[in-house]
Give the backbone structure.
Amino acid sequence: MSLLIPLYVHPAEDPGAWHRLVSAADRTWAVVLNPADGPGDTPDPAFTAAAGALRAAGARLLGYVDTDYGTRAAAGMLADARRHREWYGADGCFLDRVSAAHGELPAYRALVRELRRQGAGPVVLNPGVHPDPGYARIADLVVTFEGPWSAYVSAFSRPDWTRRHPPERFCHLVYGVPEALAPLAVRTAAERGAAVSGPVTGELPNPWRGLSPVLSGAER
């Protein structure tokens, strides 16, 4: 089971969720750390402690970096990634709000190249849709679906180019999943060519405040 876990709730607000995540660290593909829509301006002691516990448990950590669909300056994004590494020991980066357009691909290619030069890995791109095929060649993992369960069931389509890549290169993040159907969401992602997934029951504006029922064991 390969689960990507964005847990966007402060450890002081829901310590139980973080404790459960630490105990299930061996069942995750990676955990996304997002103290303040990025690393924040100063280190957060609660996230420092949580990140340390996750690392000790064997979890791979990704620092959240907002790319604002290609409009942010590279210097700011590189600085965010560096803070995640220095403050929280992040291994790699989760680049969010990524453009899907061909025209933005050269800028993202240069950004990922520089992140790797600085030691970040893996690098995950999240356009939330199927992007230009070139994005799959520059990332370790691409999130090709982020949206509600209702749309995942009724409106998902998979372009042919994705079949030229192994399923381990793709991830589907689905929210609003009925708790009992979370294991089905994992299986559905695998059937649709995404070996990594992260189904949650939460809804907008922040579906990622809670753990996946699959990870927490709520389905058992």
Remarks:
- The two ends are 15 Å apart (CA to CA).
- Strands lie at 2-6, 28-33, 61-66, 92-96, 123-126, 141-148, 170-175, 196-197.
